[in-house]
Design goal:
Blueprint (H helix, E strand, L loop, with lengths): L1 H14 L11 H4 L18 E3 L3 E8 L3 E10 L7 E6 L4 E5 L10 E9 L5 E11 L5 E11 L5 H5 L2
Parallel strand pairs: 2-8
Antiparallel strand pairs: 1-3, 3-6, 4-7, 5-6, 7-8
Length: about 160
């Protein structure tokens, strides 16, 4: 038992030499035979989430109004795309619907979002996070615009 314990301690101590502190060696990257170039780089395969637009500016609205928008996308990859989760960062913005079934290559879909401006005024920047099996695995959509309260006139904003 002591021999086995001693062997484990010795092998673990040999793993840590203290010089690189967990840094990964770049030797293979710096060798021309193993470095990626445009000639020998593999083509990206798998699903690719390609959005028509990643942001939508809803302009200026009165407080209490709801803004609905459809973000359109396409799978420009070569395998089925799965949208695992679509969620907003606050309760005023909601991802109402998105495709739950796999999206075949060359096909597309829509993500319906809604922003509720109740109890909000001023400039608004809202984020909607998409988690999928594409690379990168997370994509952020943006809703932006201005909300004016009941005490403001539209001319107050446009006069500046």
């Amino acid at each position: 038992k002591y021999i086995l314990l001693a062997a484990i301690v010795v092998s673990l101590s040999n793993c840590v030499d203290g010089t690189d502190s967990g840094r990964i060696s770049t030797d293979l990257i710096n060798i021309s035979a193993t470095a990626n170039s445009s000639d020998n780089a593999p083509k990206e395969t798998g699903p690719i989430l390609e959005m028509d637009n990643i942001s939508f500016n809803f302009g200026t609205i009165a407080a209490g109004k709801r803004v609905n928008h459809l973000f359109k996308f396409m799978n420009s990859g070569d395998s089925p795309l799965l949208l695992a989760n679509v969620h907003a960062t606050c309760g005023c913005t909601v991802a109402k619907s998105w495709p739950k079934d796999p999206i075949k290559p060359g096909q597309g879909g829509e993500i319906a979002v809604e922003f509720d401006s109740s109890n909000r005024t001023g400039h608004q920047d809202k984020a909607i996070h998409i988690t999928s099996n594409s690379r990168p695995a997370t994509l952020v959509l943006k809703l932006t615009g201005d909300v004016i309260g009941p005490d403001f006139e539209l001319s107050d904003i446009t006069a500046n």
